[in-house]
Amino acid sequence: MQFLLTKLLWSTLTITGLVGAIVGFILPVIPGIPFLILMIYSLKKLSPKFHQWLSQTWLANWLREHQPKLAKWLMS
């Protein structure tokens, strides 16, 4: 039961982060980057396989090159 609730929590945070990031990139009033970080972090907790795949994409390489502290925190 606790496992199911944990998955539900991380799924909810992932969807919230995705919606917030989309709204934040469309509207200049709301910042989209914190929501994007929330989405990536909660997706990392939800699916380790997806996180492994994501850490090998060009976006992860760009993040490691331009924002090493953030990349270390997100990709670890």
Q: What would you say this structure looks like, in words?
A:
The protein has 76 residues and is mainly α. It has one domain (2-75). It has five helices and no strands. Helix 2 crosses helix 3. The longest helix has 25 residues, at 2-26. The relative contact order is 0.12. Keywords: Membrane, Transmembrane, Transmembrane helix. The chain crosses the membrane at residues 12-41. InterPro entries: DUF454.
Biggest beta sheet attributes: none
Report low-confidence residues grouped into runs of 5 or more. Answer: none
What is the structural class? mainly alpha
Number of strands: 0
| Global morphology | flat
Pfam families: DUF454
Transmembrane segments: 12-41
Keywords: Membrane, Transmembrane, Transmembrane helix
Short description:
The protein is mainly alpha-helical and 76 residues long.
SSE topology sketch:
Elements (H helix, E strand, L loop, with lengths): L1 H25 L6 H14 L1 H7 L3 H9 L1 H8 L1
Helix pairs in contact: 1-2, 2-3, 4-5
Describe this protein with a few key phrases:
mainly alpha, DUF454, transmembrane helix, 76 residues, membrane, transmembrane
